[in-house]
Amino acid sequence: MAALGPFEPKPRIAVAVSGGADSMTLALLAAGWARKASDGLVGVARFDAEKGATHVLQYLESAPEVKTASPEEIARHIERGGRQLVDKAGIDLLGRVEAAQAQKLGLPSFKFADDEKMLAAIAQERSAPVSAGD
Q1: Are 8 and 47 contained in the same domain?
Q2: Among 39, 47, 77, 91, which is 20 to 30 Å from 98 by CA?
Q3: What is the pLDDT along the chain (134 residues), one digit of tens a residue?
Q4: What is the pTM of this model?
Q5: Alpha carbon of 18 to those of 13, 15, 24, 112: distances in Å?
Q6: Are 84 and 54 members of one domain?
Q7: Domain of residue 33, residue span
Q8: Which H or E run contains 127?
């Protein structure tokens, strides 16, 4: 880490966590790093991370609840900005279209080169008639 420095003697960092496994792991690592720079001993870094996690969990237990935007509000915000929202179903459609294109071209995989082509492929796939076998 020294090669990446110099760092402040007492660094302050902010980490947002959702409570999921990935963000909690990042919080643990960040807490361990911020509390005491690793001296190469795994046990020390883990101890620091666990100590930091305890502080994070104590804070979260008493933290005020914050109102967050609903999925519908987020979608409206994206669309108001002139962007097209692609939902999970659209991503799945795109994956199928790209897989079919790869097979058609004899390639191991295929990805569209730009957003416009991806969005057009999703729209075309959504408007295609559904066959009885689907």
Answers
A1: yes
A2: 77
A3: 566 666 666 666 666 777 777 777 777 777 666 555 555 544 566 677 778 788 888 888 888 888 888 889 988 998 898 888 888 899 999 999 999 999 999 999 999 988 899 999 999 999 988 766 55
A4: 0.47
A5: 17, 10, 8, 32
A6: no
A7: 2-62
A8: helix 115-127
